[in-house]
Amino acid sequence: MGANYDEAYARRYRTRDDELDAIGSYQELVGWIGSVCDRFANPIDVLDLGCGTGRYFWGLRHVKTLTGLDASPAMLVEARTPTHADRIRAERIELVHGDLAAQRFAADSFDLVYSIGVLAEHVPLNRSLVTRVAGWLKPGGRFAFTTVDPESPDVPRTPARRVAAALLPVMPGGAGRRLHERLMAGGMYGDARWIQAQLTDLFTIESLEQYQSDVHLHGRCVARKAA
Question: What total of structural domains would you count in the chain?
Answer without folding.
Answer: 1
